[in-house]
From TrEMBL:
It comes from the Eukaryota. GO terms for cellular component: ionotropic glutamate receptor complex; postsynaptic membrane. This is Glutamate receptor 1. Residues 419-486 form the Ionotropic glutamate receptor L-glutamate and glycine-binding domain.
Length: 917
């Protein structure tokens, strides 16, 4: 079956078959309808196409009762247009009713032109592009093409690229015709999308320089639009330069990719996808292959081909014969189809009258063959067809994963479970290179994932210590993202935030932790306790002014009461003829009235004159205002004296300029403020950008240290999870305000990583089982010094005033009581002295008598002593009467009975005796 000998041997088939038909034609009574075919004289799959054509004719003849197709085959060179024209004219002279082939654009055009002139159906099975000026219906009136229409096939490739979410890719092509087939792909990207790279290969068999250039560009998505005989060698060289790894993806546009033996590449880790026009597991193709093998065996020409490796052109020839035979059968039922010998060079050019009818019938007829549904448009192009999307697997070679049709687009045939199982299986012997920068949490996270999926891993640190940001000037990434783009790592496991910009460069799993931006700030400094904190609501000046006002009002009240007649009263209202009046508003009572007013307690005695009442009223108003203000502000002031915090939210930071604030340079938090449209965050970014010295840090640890050393003059904006980790270990730091945004941490990996689905599933499983929460609790609150600052004071208790804040009130109360006790003793001694003088006894005796009476709590009344003795019974002096009158008034003013020495003591011979009453 190899070499030119095989091609030469089939040249005898026409004569042999014609002889058979000549011998048997009269036996079965069938009318002969000759059909012509033109094949190329090259040792390629044209031999298989010819076999498919001949045995399709044979199978038709087995089932037809009224006619028999007689195949007439000619051979031409793909570039020989003159010989091609001569061969097609020979076929016309032999009375063929249709011409099949050839398969090159040049020779097929010549055949189509002759068939159009003679109105003989021309059936082709190769890609035929639309002319630049558009299709002329008159020129294609007699042509039927079973190969998928160029624009629709290009749309299928474009849909596949969109479904694969390829943001950028490189096209490798070998001919201009191949690039024309991809015009829809070239149009799916807009001006803002990543550019598409187009590279052409020449006849040089060394493709390595080209592949190395693509590798250095970081491109991992490649479309191969090259001849099938070049595909295997190109991929083999790609493997040599390590361009066939797990993060490279290839789409082969040739519909014959499934016929290539990829055995040596089946175990490569790259994704290789191709398109196929036929279902290789269908009964029709198996039956056709059986016919080919059996027929060639009868002719002593061994032929072996599996249904999975049948070329597209061969299958199309089989379907072309089938649909043409159907048209002949249907039309012959109404009018007998008779062949006619036609001449290309005659002056009176004659056309076959049935040709146009057969072509029009085929255009409207819907058939189903080896290559699926066959539907043509008005120009004879196959506008509706189905494609199998196949993927190279290590176990089965090319395996069907999806289908495509113009109506529904890409439709996957494998379940998610199958995809997951395939990925997990490929992970079994995989050793991941990851990147860890987040203590033990990341290690335990990836360890848990590896136990679920069964892979090994090795951790490495990124050299520059950065997360990953895009430099618009150099158009390059740094940090973790660059590490992944350079294929130096398979995974990036750390506190890496999922952002839109990073998502355009790498892929992320589902978030394993949610978070937001918050503010790290130093806790307020605890102020020393002050016993006299209760005085703080009023300044020292106010207290001095109040004391001055208190004394001034008291003196004014005393003076005005001495001047006002209404404040001079009769001490004995019952004695209307009393010629003496008294004024109770001495300095002591004036001070007592003002003191009672300012304390909010009032007084039992009130001024009566208008002037003194006005003074008292104004003082009461003043006292009421001051007391209310003091009471309202006391608790708040005593609470706030312990809190010297000046910020509570991001808005507070934005409104002030005293406290500086910053973020990690090049991180996602910085990008948040740079791109935010919110006015507050825009002001904050402008403030950070213009601050000198710079407020940006290289890491979270540097930001933490700067907050500690900043003495509440620097705040650090960072992600809440890292902030929580810090505040669990540094008790003098705290979180201020809530979250400024919401986002998540994800495990990053190269774009289109085949392991993303499996790793996301493992993360979800750990989340559902509560393992992610356990990990966070372990590494935030238990390990490496965590849990030191877990005591959170109750908010109500935090606002309560302790003894350390209001102890001064008790001190003042104690001092006041002590002073009152001393004054009471002095008053008692002063009264003892007066009793001793008036009763003419010794002070000691008077003291004992008064003290004994005061301590005798059972006595509730005190009798009035008779002050008249025998020596003074003859009369009263006016001076003594006035003295007793004044003393009685004073005692009455104090609310007590008139006390005299005689009411307490009796004198006898033995000395001082107490009354027993």
């Amino acid at each position: 079956m190899q070499g030119t000998g095989r091609v030469v041997s089939v040249h005898y088939l026409p004569a042999i078959l014609l002889l058979v038909h000549a011998l048997c034609g009269s036996v079965d009574g069938k009318r002969e309808i000759p059909v012509g075919a033109i094949f190329h004289q090259v040792p390629d799959h044209s031999y298989e196409s010819e076999i498919a054509f001949r045995y399709a004719v044979e199978r038709v003849n087995m089932h037809e009762k009224h006619f028999e197709l007689v195949p007439i085959v000619r051979y031409v060179s793909p570039e020989d247009s003159f010989r091609t024209e001569r061969k097609v004219c020979e076929l016309a002279a032999e009375g063929v009713t249709a011409v099949f082939g050839p398969s090159s654009l040049l020779t097929a055009g010549i055949v189509g032109s002759v068939c159009k002139t003679l109105e003989i159906p021309h059936i082709i099975t190769h890609w035929d592009p639309e002319p630049l000026g558009g299709i002329e219906a008159e020129l294609r009136a007699m042509t039927i093409n079973l190969y998928p229409e160029a624009d629709v096939l290009s749309r299928a490739l474009a849909d596949l690229i969109v479904d694969y979410s390829w943001k950028s890719f490189t096209i490798i092509y070998d001919s201009d015709a191949g690039l024309m087939r991809l015009k829809d792909i070239l149009q799916i990207h807009g001006p803002a999308d990543a550019p598409i790279t187009v590279r052409q290969i020449d006849d040089d068999p060394d493709y390595r320089p080209l592949l190395k250039d693509i590798q250095s560009s970081g491109e991992s998505h490649i479309i191969l639009e090259v001849r099938p005989d070049r595909i295997l060698e190109l991929l083999r060289q790609a493997k040599e330069v390590k361009m066939l790894e797990e993060y490279q993806s290839y789409i082969i546009t040739s519909l014959d990719a499934h016929t290539i033996d990829f055995e040596e590449l089946r175990y490569s880790r790259s994704n290789i996808t191709a398109l196929r026009l036929m279902d290789t597991k269908s009964f029709d193709i198996k039956n056709a292959v059986h016919d080919w093998e059996q027929g060639e065996a009868r002719m002593k020409r061994p032929f072996r081909v599996s249904p999975e490796h049948v070329h597209t052109e061969s299958a199309l020839y089989n379907d072309a014969v089938k649909i043409y035979a159907t048209a002949i059968r249907e039309l012959d039922a109404t009018e007998e189809i008779t062949p006619a010998r036609l001449s290309c060079g005659s002056k009176n050019l004659r056309q076959w009258p049935f040709g146009l009818r057969i072509v029009n019938y085929m255009k409207v007829k819907t058939e189903h063959g080896i290559t699926g549904p066959i539907i043509f448009d008005d120009f004879g192009r196959r506008a509706h067809f189905h494609l199998d999307i196949i993927e190279l697997s290590k176990d089965e070679g090319f395996k069907k994963i999806a289908t495509w049709d113009p109506t529904h687009g890409v439709n996957y045939t494998r379940s998610q479970g199958e995809v997951y199982s395939q990925i997990v299986e490929s992970l079994q012997n995989k050793t991941f290179i990851g990147n860890n920068r987040f203590e033990g949490y990341s290690l335990e996270l990836i360890d848990g994932i590896s136990k679920i999926l069964g892979f090994q891993y090795r951790m490495e640190l990124v050299p520059d210590g950065k997360y990953g940001s895009y430099n618009k000037v150099t158009k390059k990434w740094d940090g973790l993202v660059k590490y992944l783009l350079d294929r130096k790592a398979d995974l990036a496991v750390c506190d890496l935030t999922i952002t839109y910009e990073r998502r355009t460069a790498v892929d992320f799993t589902m978030p394993f932790m949610t978070l937001g931006i918050s503010i790290l700030y130093a806790k307020p400094v605890q102020q020393p306790k002050d016993l006299f904190s209760f005085l703080s609501p009023l300044s020292l000046d106010v207290w001095i002014y109040m004391a001055t006002a208190y004394l001034g009002v008291s003196v004014l009240l005393f003076v005005l009461s001495r001047m006002a007649p209404a404040d001079w009263e009769n001490p004995h209202p019952c004695k209307q003829d009393n010629d003496e009046v008294e004024n109770i508003w001495d300095m002591c009572n004036a001070l007592w009235l003002t003191m009672g007013s300012i304390m909010g307690q009032g007084c039992d005695i009130l001024p009566k004159a208008i002037s003194t009442r006005l003074v008292a009223g104004m003082w009461w108003f003043f006292a009421l205002i001051m007391l209310s203000s003091y009471t309202a502000n006391l608790a708040a002031f005593l609470t706030m004296e312990r809190m010297d915090a000046t910020i509570e939210s991001a808005e507070d930071l934005a409104k002030q300029s005293k406290i500086k604030y910053g973020v990690v340079m090049g991180g996602s938090t910085m990008a948040f403020f740079q791109t935010s449209n919110f006015s507050t965050y825009q002001r904050m970014w402008a403030s950070m950008e213009s601050a000198r010295p710079s407020v940006f840090t290289k890491s979270n640890d540097e930001g933490r240290d700067r907050v500690i050393k900043g003495k509440r003059m620097y705040a650090f904006l960072m992600e809440s999870t890292s902030l929580e980790y810090i505040t669990e270990r540094y008790c003098d730091l705290t979180q201020i305000g809530g979250l400024l945004d919401s986002k998540g941490y994800g495990i990053a990996m190269p774009v289109n990583s085949p392991y993303r689905t499996a790793i996301s599933g493992a993360v979800l499983k750990m989340q559902e089982e509560g393992k992610l929460y356990q990990l966070k609790t372990r590494w935030w609150k238990e390990m490496r010094g965590g849990g030191q600052c877990t005591e959170v004071p109750n908010s109500s208790q935090e606002n309560e005033l302790g003894i350390g804040n209001v102890g001064g009130v008790f001190v003042v109360l104690a001092l006041g009581c002590f002073c009152a006790f001393l004054i009471g003793i002095l008053e008692f001694l002063w009264n003892v002295r007066k009793v001793a003088v008036e009763e003419k006894v010794t002070p000691w005796d008077a003291l004992k008598a008064e003290l004994k009476f005061a301590l005798n709590i059972a006595v509730t009344s005190k009798p009035v002593h008779n002050t008249l003795s025998e020596s003074t019974a003859s009369g009263k002096s006016s001076l003594r009467s006035k003295s007793e009158s004044r003393r009685g008034s004073e005692l009455a003013g104090r609310g007590h009975s008139v006390r005299t020495a005689a009411s307490l003591t009796n004198l006898d011979k033995s000395g001082l005796a107490f009354d027993k009453h």
